[in-house]
Amino acid sequence: MKGNLVFVDSSVLEIAMFASETPESVKIEKYRLHYMKSNGKILFRYDNAPHHPEIASYPHHKHTPDNVIPSSETSLKDVLKEISATIIGKP
Question: What is the pLDDT of residues 19-32, one digit of tens each?
C-alpha cells in the first residue's frame, strides 16, 4: 500500500507499507510512515529500514527533526492519532 494523506493544515503523511499474507494472518514486512509540513520539512517518520543497528528497538525506529529514537512497530491508526494531536496542539 502506498499513498499520501493531506491534512487540514496542509501537512502530509506519506504511507508505504508492504505486507505478506498467509491463510492465518497478514504480516507487515516493511513500512515507512513519513509525516511532514507542507514545505516538505520532516516532523517525524516511523520505519523499519535496517539502517540504525545502534537503536535498541532495531530495526524499528522513529526519526524526528533532530534525532533517531527507539520505537516499537507502529500502526497507521497510532500515527493518525499522533498527527491529530499535533494538529490540534495537544501532545
Answer: 999 999 989 999 99
- Asked if residue 27 lies in contact with residue 20, where contact means CB atoms within 8 angstroms, the answer is yes
Amino acid found at 78 = D
Contact 24, 11 (CB under 8 A): no
**How many whole angstroms separate alpha carbon 51 and alpha carbon 53?**
6
Q: Which residues pair with 49 in a beta bridge?
A: none
Question: Model's pTM, two decimal places?
Answer: 0.89
CB 47 within 8 A of CB 32: yes
Please state the domain extents for the chain. Answer: 2-88
51 burial via Cβ count (<10 Å: 0-12, 13-18, 19+): exposed
Question: Do 51 and 60 form a contact (C-beta atoms < 8 A)?
Answer: no
